[in-house]
Amino acid sequence: MVVELSRQDARRIAVGAQLLDDSRADDLVEAVRRLGFVQLEPTAAVAPTADLVLWSRLGDHYQPSMLTEALEHDGTLFELDLLVRPMEDLALFRAGMAVWPQSESTARWLDDNEEFVDDVLELLELDGPLTARSIPDTSLVSWPSSGWNNNRNVMMMLQCLMMQGRVAVAGRQGRDRLWDLAERVYHADIPTVPLDKALRIRAERRLAAQGLVPTSTPDLPVETTRVGEAGVAAVVEGVRGTWRLDPDALERDFAPRTALLSPFDGLLRDRKRMGLLFDFDYALEMYKPAAKRRWGYYALPILHGDRLIGKLDATADRDRGRLVIHALHEDETFAPAVRRAVDAEIDALSGWLGLTRA
User: Fold this and answer.
1) Which residues contact 120 (CB under 8 A, 6 or more apart)?
2) Tell me: the pLDDT tens digits for 286-316?
3) φ, ψ for residue 254 (rounded to 5)?
Protein backbone atom coordinates (compact mmCIF):
# COMPACT_ATOMS: atom_id res chain seq x y z
CA MET A 1 0.00 0.00 0.00
CA VAL A 2 1.19 3.49 -0.88
CA VAL A 3 -0.36 6.38 1.05
CA GLU A 4 -1.31 9.36 -1.11
CA LEU A 5 -0.93 12.76 0.55
CA SER A 6 -1.75 16.27 -0.54
CA ARG A 7 1.12 18.70 -0.22
CA GLN A 8 -0.73 20.49 2.58
CA ASP A 9 -1.22 17.25 4.50
CA ALA A 10 2.48 16.44 4.03
CA ARG A 11 3.48 19.83 5.42
CA ARG A 12 1.16 19.41 8.39
CA ILE A 13 2.60 15.99 9.15
CA ALA A 14 6.13 17.45 9.07
CA VAL A 15 5.19 20.41 11.28
CA GLY A 16 3.26 18.30 13.80
CA ALA A 17 6.03 15.70 14.06
CA GLN A 18 8.41 18.50 15.09
CA LEU A 19 6.02 19.72 17.83
CA LEU A 20 5.44 22.97 15.97
CA ASP A 21 1.66 22.85 15.83
CA ASP A 22 -0.41 23.99 18.80
CA SER A 23 -0.14 20.68 20.68
CA ARG A 24 3.03 21.78 22.46
CA ALA A 25 5.07 19.48 24.65
CA ASP A 26 4.98 20.35 28.34
CA ASP A 27 8.11 18.52 29.54
CA LEU A 28 11.71 19.11 28.50
CA VAL A 29 12.84 15.48 28.37
CA GLU A 30 9.67 14.40 26.56
CA ALA A 31 10.21 17.16 23.99
CA VAL A 32 13.79 15.99 23.33
CA ARG A 33 12.57 12.38 23.19
CA ARG A 34 9.99 13.22 20.52
CA LEU A 35 12.41 15.38 18.54
CA GLY A 36 15.05 12.66 18.70
CA PHE A 37 17.80 15.13 19.53
CA VAL A 38 18.47 18.84 19.98
CA GLN A 39 21.56 20.34 18.39
CA LEU A 40 24.05 22.32 20.46
CA GLU A 41 25.25 25.15 18.23
CA PRO A 42 26.82 28.03 20.16
CA THR A 43 26.03 30.98 17.88
CA ALA A 44 23.83 33.25 19.97
CA ALA A 45 22.94 36.27 17.84
CA VAL A 46 19.47 35.88 19.36
CA ALA A 47 19.91 32.82 21.59
CA PRO A 48 21.75 29.48 21.27
CA THR A 49 20.09 27.02 18.91
CA ALA A 50 19.14 24.49 21.59
CA ASP A 51 17.37 27.18 23.59
CA LEU A 52 15.51 28.56 20.57
CA VAL A 53 14.42 25.06 19.55
CA LEU A 54 13.17 24.21 23.03
CA TRP A 55 11.47 27.59 23.57
CA SER A 56 9.61 27.21 20.29
CA ARG A 57 8.30 23.83 21.49
CA LEU A 58 7.79 24.39 25.22
CA GLY A 59 6.93 28.07 25.36
CA ASP A 60 7.87 30.68 27.93
CA HIS A 61 8.18 28.29 30.86
CA TYR A 62 11.34 26.86 29.26
CA GLN A 63 14.55 28.38 30.62
CA PRO A 64 18.14 27.50 29.58
CA SER A 65 18.92 26.48 33.15
CA MET A 66 16.49 23.58 32.70
CA LEU A 67 18.67 22.10 29.95
CA THR A 68 21.82 22.53 32.05
CA GLU A 69 20.12 20.87 35.01
CA ALA A 70 18.96 17.91 32.92
CA LEU A 71 22.43 17.40 31.41
CA GLU A 72 24.71 18.08 34.36
CA HIS A 73 22.70 17.16 37.46
CA ASP A 74 19.58 15.09 36.76
CA GLY A 75 21.25 12.86 34.17
CA THR A 76 18.01 12.65 32.19
CA LEU A 77 19.75 13.89 29.03
CA PHE A 78 23.23 13.30 27.65
CA GLU A 79 25.39 14.97 25.02
CA LEU A 80 26.99 13.02 22.20
CA ASP A 81 28.77 14.75 19.33
CA LEU A 82 27.08 18.10 20.09
CA LEU A 83 23.60 16.55 20.04
CA VAL A 84 21.47 16.27 23.18
CA ARG A 85 19.47 13.04 23.58
CA PRO A 86 17.43 11.31 26.30
CA MET A 87 19.72 9.29 28.57
CA GLU A 88 17.82 6.07 27.88
CA ASP A 89 18.74 6.38 24.19
CA LEU A 90 22.35 5.65 25.13
CA ALA A 91 21.28 2.01 24.88
CA LEU A 92 20.87 2.52 21.12
CA PHE A 93 24.46 3.80 20.74
CA ARG A 94 26.50 1.45 22.91
CA ALA A 95 26.84 -1.28 20.28
CA GLY A 96 27.99 1.25 17.68
CA MET A 97 30.50 2.66 20.16
CA ALA A 98 31.97 -0.83 20.63
CA VAL A 99 32.88 -1.12 16.92
CA TRP A 100 33.92 2.51 16.35
CA PRO A 101 35.88 3.60 14.33
CA GLN A 102 35.15 2.01 11.00
CA SER A 103 37.56 4.37 9.28
CA GLU A 104 40.96 2.70 8.79
CA SER A 105 42.83 6.00 9.02
CA THR A 106 41.20 6.89 12.36
CA ALA A 107 41.87 3.40 13.73
CA ARG A 108 45.51 3.67 12.64
CA TRP A 109 45.85 7.11 14.29
CA LEU A 110 44.52 5.72 17.57
CA ASP A 111 46.88 2.74 17.36
CA ASP A 112 49.84 5.04 16.69
CA ASN A 113 48.89 7.11 19.74
CA GLU A 114 48.15 4.34 22.22
CA GLU A 115 50.21 6.06 24.93
CA PHE A 116 48.36 9.32 24.26
CA VAL A 117 45.06 7.46 24.80
CA ASP A 118 46.32 6.11 28.12
CA ASP A 119 47.57 9.54 29.18
CA VAL A 120 44.20 11.17 28.54
CA LEU A 121 42.22 8.47 30.34
CA GLU A 122 44.58 8.43 33.33
CA LEU A 123 44.48 12.22 33.68
CA LEU A 124 40.68 12.27 33.55
CA GLU A 125 40.48 9.48 36.11
CA LEU A 126 42.70 11.44 38.52
CA ASP A 127 41.62 15.04 37.87
CA GLY A 128 38.47 15.02 35.72
CA PRO A 129 36.32 16.65 34.62
CA LEU A 130 38.70 18.80 32.56
CA THR A 131 38.53 21.07 29.55
CA ALA A 132 40.53 20.13 26.46
CA ARG A 133 42.96 22.99 27.09
CA SER A 134 43.84 21.41 30.47
CA ILE A 135 44.99 18.17 28.82
CA PRO A 136 48.58 18.02 27.48
CA ASP A 137 49.18 16.92 23.92
CA THR A 138 51.40 13.83 24.22
CA SER A 139 50.63 12.49 20.75
CA LEU A 140 53.36 10.82 18.74
CA VAL A 141 51.50 11.27 15.45
CA SER A 142 49.45 14.37 14.67
CA TRP A 143 45.89 14.14 13.45
CA PRO A 144 46.04 13.77 9.62
CA SER A 145 44.29 16.92 8.53
CA SER A 146 45.08 19.81 6.25
CA GLY A 147 42.30 22.09 7.39
CA TRP A 148 40.07 22.88 10.36
CA ASN A 149 41.53 20.22 12.68
CA ASN A 150 45.21 21.06 12.26
CA ASN A 151 47.10 21.05 15.58
CA ARG A 152 44.00 19.97 17.52
CA ASN A 153 45.23 16.59 18.62
CA VAL A 154 43.73 16.76 22.12
CA MET A 155 40.27 17.72 20.87
CA MET A 156 40.35 15.07 18.17
CA MET A 157 41.43 12.44 20.70
CA LEU A 158 38.59 13.40 23.04
CA GLN A 159 36.19 13.24 20.11
CA CYS A 160 37.40 9.75 19.23
CA LEU A 161 37.19 8.52 22.81
CA MET A 162 33.69 9.96 23.08
CA MET A 163 32.57 8.07 19.98
CA GLN A 164 34.02 4.90 21.55
CA GLY A 165 32.03 5.52 24.72
CA ARG A 166 35.15 5.88 26.87
CA VAL A 167 34.83 9.57 27.72
CA ALA A 168 31.79 11.84 27.85
CA VAL A 169 30.84 15.48 28.20
CA ALA A 170 30.13 16.18 31.87
CA GLY A 171 29.19 19.84 31.56
CA ARG A 172 30.43 23.22 30.44
CA GLN A 173 32.95 25.75 31.72
CA GLY A 174 31.89 28.85 29.85
CA ARG A 175 31.75 27.70 26.23
CA ASP A 176 34.31 24.91 26.78
CA ARG A 177 33.16 21.35 27.25
CA LEU A 178 34.19 19.53 30.43
CA TRP A 179 35.32 15.97 29.75
CA ASP A 180 35.29 13.01 32.13
CA LEU A 181 35.33 9.23 32.06
CA ALA A 182 32.07 7.99 30.55
CA GLU A 183 31.44 5.68 33.50
CA ARG A 184 31.13 8.77 35.73
CA VAL A 185 28.68 10.52 33.38
CA TYR A 186 26.47 7.81 31.88
CA HIS A 187 24.04 5.68 33.88
CA ALA A 188 25.60 2.32 34.67
CA ASP A 189 22.34 0.38 34.32
CA ILE A 190 21.65 1.30 30.68
CA PRO A 191 21.83 -1.88 28.57
CA THR A 192 23.32 -2.41 25.13
CA VAL A 193 20.82 -3.00 22.33
CA PRO A 194 22.30 -5.21 19.56
CA LEU A 195 23.56 -3.11 16.66
CA ASP A 196 21.09 -4.23 13.97
CA LYS A 197 18.13 -3.72 16.27
CA ALA A 198 19.50 -0.38 17.52
CA LEU A 199 19.90 0.95 13.98
CA ARG A 200 16.35 -0.11 13.14
CA ILE A 201 14.91 1.59 16.23
CA ARG A 202 16.93 4.73 15.54
CA ALA A 203 15.56 4.86 11.98
CA GLU A 204 12.00 4.49 13.31
CA ARG A 205 12.59 7.26 15.88
CA ARG A 206 14.12 9.46 13.18
CA LEU A 207 11.06 9.01 11.00
CA ALA A 208 8.69 9.71 13.89
CA ALA A 209 10.53 12.97 14.58
CA GLN A 210 10.23 14.05 10.93
CA GLY A 211 6.89 12.50 10.07
CA LEU A 212 7.74 12.20 6.41
CA VAL A 213 11.12 11.69 4.71
CA PRO A 214 12.02 11.41 1.01
CA THR A 215 13.19 7.93 0.04
CA SER A 216 16.12 9.61 -1.72
CA THR A 217 17.55 12.02 0.82
CA PRO A 218 21.07 13.31 1.54
CA ASP A 219 23.13 11.62 4.23
CA LEU A 220 23.63 14.67 6.43
CA PRO A 221 26.63 14.78 8.80
CA VAL A 222 26.50 13.89 12.51
CA GLU A 223 22.93 12.55 12.32
CA THR A 224 21.69 11.14 9.05
CA THR A 225 18.18 11.92 7.78
CA ARG A 226 17.83 8.53 6.10
CA VAL A 227 15.28 6.10 7.51
CA GLY A 228 15.65 3.04 5.26
CA GLU A 229 12.46 0.95 5.16
CA ALA A 230 10.97 2.40 8.35
CA GLY A 231 7.31 3.37 8.17
CA VAL A 232 5.20 2.98 5.05
CA ALA A 233 5.54 4.16 1.46
CA ALA A 234 3.89 7.43 0.46
CA VAL A 235 3.65 9.86 -2.42
CA VAL A 236 2.98 13.59 -2.21
CA GLU A 237 0.74 15.28 -4.74
CA GLY A 238 2.72 17.47 -7.13
CA VAL A 239 6.10 16.30 -5.77
CA ARG A 240 8.30 13.84 -7.62
CA GLY A 241 9.63 10.73 -5.94
CA THR A 242 8.51 8.47 -3.11
CA TRP A 243 8.55 9.02 0.64
CA ARG A 244 8.60 7.09 3.89
CA LEU A 245 5.74 8.03 6.21
CA ASP A 246 5.28 7.49 9.94
CA PRO A 247 1.80 5.90 9.94
CA ASP A 248 1.04 7.21 13.43
CA ALA A 249 1.23 10.74 11.99
CA LEU A 250 -1.99 10.11 10.08
CA GLU A 251 -3.90 9.83 13.35
CA ARG A 252 -2.92 13.25 14.69
CA ASP A 253 -5.05 16.37 14.39
CA PHE A 254 -3.35 19.57 13.28
CA ALA A 255 -3.83 22.83 15.17
CA PRO A 256 -1.91 25.71 13.54
CA ARG A 257 0.19 28.31 15.30
CA THR A 258 2.96 30.78 14.53
CA ALA A 259 6.58 30.09 15.51
CA LEU A 260 10.04 31.63 15.11
CA LEU A 261 12.62 28.99 14.30
CA SER A 262 16.35 28.62 14.76
CA PRO A 263 18.28 28.47 11.46
CA PHE A 264 19.32 24.98 12.64
CA ASP A 265 15.79 23.84 13.47
CA GLY A 266 14.94 20.21 12.75
CA LEU A 267 12.12 21.25 10.41
CA LEU A 268 14.74 22.89 8.16
CA ARG A 269 17.68 20.54 8.56
CA ASP A 270 17.09 18.72 5.28
CA ARG A 271 17.08 21.67 2.88
CA LYS A 272 15.98 19.46 -0.01
CA ARG A 273 12.87 18.35 1.88
CA MET A 274 12.24 21.93 2.96
CA GLY A 275 12.16 23.01 -0.66
CA LEU A 276 9.95 20.13 -1.81
CA LEU A 277 7.32 20.57 0.89
CA PHE A 278 7.44 24.27 1.74
CA ASP A 279 8.84 25.91 -1.40
CA PHE A 280 10.87 28.09 0.99
CA ASP A 281 13.97 29.96 -0.14
CA TYR A 282 16.38 30.18 2.78
CA ALA A 283 20.07 29.91 3.60
CA LEU A 284 22.03 30.67 6.74
CA GLU A 285 24.06 33.76 5.86
CA MET A 286 26.31 34.19 8.89
CA TYR A 287 29.31 33.05 6.82
CA LYS A 288 28.62 35.46 3.96
CA PRO A 289 30.02 39.00 3.69
CA ALA A 290 27.45 41.50 4.96
CA ALA A 291 27.01 43.03 1.51
CA LYS A 292 25.93 39.67 0.05
CA ARG A 293 23.28 38.82 2.64
CA ARG A 294 19.63 38.90 1.59
CA TRP A 295 18.02 38.22 4.95
CA GLY A 296 20.63 38.89 7.62
CA TYR A 297 23.40 37.35 9.70
CA TYR A 298 21.14 35.00 11.69
CA ALA A 299 17.65 35.37 10.26
CA LEU A 300 14.97 33.29 11.98
CA PRO A 301 12.56 31.48 9.62
CA ILE A 302 8.90 32.23 10.39
CA LEU A 303 6.36 29.41 10.47
CA HIS A 304 2.66 30.23 10.25
CA GLY A 305 0.40 27.20 10.31
CA ASP A 306 1.84 24.80 7.74
CA ARG A 307 3.73 27.42 5.71
CA LEU A 308 7.14 29.03 6.05
CA ILE A 309 6.31 32.64 5.25
CA GLY A 310 9.34 34.86 5.94
CA LYS A 311 12.45 35.62 7.96
CA LEU A 312 13.12 37.74 11.03
CA ASP A 313 16.50 39.50 11.07
CA ALA A 314 17.07 40.31 14.73
CA THR A 315 19.90 40.61 17.26
CA ALA A 316 19.79 40.36 21.04
CA ASP A 317 21.64 43.42 22.39
CA ARG A 318 21.99 42.21 25.96
CA ASP A 319 24.17 45.13 27.04
CA ARG A 320 21.30 47.51 26.27
CA GLY A 321 18.53 45.10 27.11
CA ARG A 322 16.99 45.20 23.63
CA LEU A 323 15.91 42.78 20.92
CA VAL A 324 16.86 44.80 17.86
CA ILE A 325 14.70 44.10 14.80
CA HIS A 326 16.77 44.85 11.71
CA ALA A 327 14.21 43.64 9.18
CA LEU A 328 11.10 41.51 8.83
CA HIS A 329 11.21 39.84 5.43
CA GLU A 330 7.79 38.83 4.09
CA ASP A 331 7.96 36.22 1.33
CA GLU A 332 4.48 37.42 0.39
CA THR A 333 2.80 40.44 1.91
CA PHE A 334 1.36 39.42 5.28
CA ALA A 335 -2.39 39.68 5.73
CA PRO A 336 -3.36 41.73 8.83
CA ALA A 337 -4.13 38.62 10.89
CA VAL A 338 -0.79 37.06 9.94
CA ARG A 339 1.05 40.28 10.82
CA ARG A 340 -0.60 40.32 14.25
CA ALA A 341 0.35 36.69 14.85
CA VAL A 342 3.97 37.30 13.83
CA ASP A 343 4.18 40.46 15.96
CA ALA A 344 2.81 38.56 18.94
CA GLU A 345 5.48 35.89 18.51
CA ILE A 346 8.25 38.50 18.28
CA ASP A 347 6.91 40.08 21.47
CA ALA A 348 6.89 36.64 23.11
CA LEU A 349 10.51 36.07 22.06
CA SER A 350 11.68 39.42 23.44
CA GLY A 351 9.78 38.78 26.68
CA TRP A 352 11.28 35.34 27.07
CA LEU A 353 14.76 36.78 26.52
CA GLY A 354 14.06 39.50 29.09
CA LEU A 355 14.64 42.18 26.46
CA THR A 356 12.66 45.14 25.19
CA ARG A 357 11.71 44.97 21.53
CA ALA A 358 13.43 47.76 19.58
Assistant:
1) 135, 154, 157, 158, 161, 167
2) 999 999 999 999 999 999 999 999 999 999 9
3) -120, 125
